[in-house]
């Protein structure tokens, strides 16, 4: 559905980085093929169910039930070429990125955000 970069404080804390690369997929398009018994969930809010590996602590994905989407961390998908199309939550950025992609203050309108675009 969407691929991009998130700059929100939650993603910064969860990924321990100023920017988090995301890939959003329809919930029914995501299937765990190995290691499902090793996954645990941290329910940050009713809108965010973070999945991590109980063995290594690695972050795997975040379910967003309100949007009916799952964010699978882009660098975990073998063979997936991350082609970002936007920056989300740019209002809380820690670093500026001048790459020509749209910089949404929060989220695009079709994801429930304001749709407001900030300058590069």
**Main sheet summary:** 7 strands, mixed
Structural class: mainly beta
Judging from the principal axes of the Cα atoms, what is the shape? globular
Rg over CA atoms: 14 Å
Distance between the termini: 23 Å
**Within the largest sheet, what's the order of strands?**
3-4-5-6-2-1-7
| Individual helix count | 1
Which residue ranges are poorly predicted, with pLDDT under 50 across at least 5 consecutive positions?
none
Strand content: 35-45%
Order of helices and strands: EHEEEEEEEE
Approximate helicity band: under 10%
Average pLDDT metric: 92
> How many beta-strand elements?
9
Give me some keywords for this one.
1 helix; globular; 9 strands; 7-stranded mixed sheet; mainly beta; 120 residues; two-stranded antiparallel ribbon; 6% helix
Q: What does it look like?
A:
This protein is mainly beta and 120 residues long. It is built from one helix and nine strands, in the order E-H-E-E-E-E-E-E-E-E. The strands form two sheets. Strands 3-4-5-6-2-1-7 form a seven-stranded mixed beta sheet. Strands 8-9 form a two-stranded antiparallel sheet. It is globular. The two termini are 23 Å apart.
Summary, kept brief:
By secondary structure, this protein is mainly beta.
List the helices and strands and how they pair.
Layout: E1 2-6, H1 9-15, E2 20-26, E3 39-45, E4 48-53, E5 59-64, E6 69-72, E7 86-88, E8 103-104, E9 117-118
Parallel strand pairs: 1-7
Antiparallel strand pairs: 1-2, 2-6, 3-4, 4-5, 5-6, 8-9
């Amino acid at each position: 559905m969407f691929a991009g970069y998130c700059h929100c404080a939650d993603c910064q804390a969860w990924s321990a980085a100023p920017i988090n690369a995301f890939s959003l997929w329809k919930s029914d398009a995501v299937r765990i093929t190995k290691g499902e018994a090793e996954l645990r969930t941290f329910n940050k809010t009713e809108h965010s169910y973070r999945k991590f590996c109980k063995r290594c602590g690695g972050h795997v994905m975040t379910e967003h039930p309100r949007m009916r989407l799952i964010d699978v961390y882009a660098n975990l998908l073998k063979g997936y070429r991350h082609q970002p199309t936007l920056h989300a939550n740019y209002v809380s950025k820690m670093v500026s990125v001048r790459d020509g992609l749209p910089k949404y203050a929060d989220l695009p309108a079709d994801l429930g955000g304001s749709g407001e675009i900030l300058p590069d």
